[in-house]
């Protein structure tokens, strides 16, 4: 007979122990960056990463989209339209976050609704 709604052969004690271990690891991994933050506040490396990461994210998204977009039935048309839109948006607003977010959404709409 199952206890606490668990299937036959599954005991509550070991299940709770496993869940508690998972909880501890998850909380630890989420808290670790904040605990380590005090060591990196004045780091030149972290400052450089803060400046270069948006460019890196954009480059990876563009490469992935261009490479994978060529395999779609519509070809490169939605890729190039979305690329022009994203570059124009970035030149106009100078916001990497806005460019990445709206460019990705615009491409998804083009691929799934328009083409």
TrEMBL record:
The chain crosses the membrane at residues 12-33, 45-67, 73-91, 98-114. Keywords: Membrane, Transmembrane, Transmembrane helix. This is Branched-chain amino acid ABC transporter permease. Pfam families: AzlD. The keyword Nuclease does not apply. InterPro entries: Brnchd-chn_aa_trnsp_AzlD. The keyword Transmembrane helix applies. It comes from Corynebacterium falsenii.
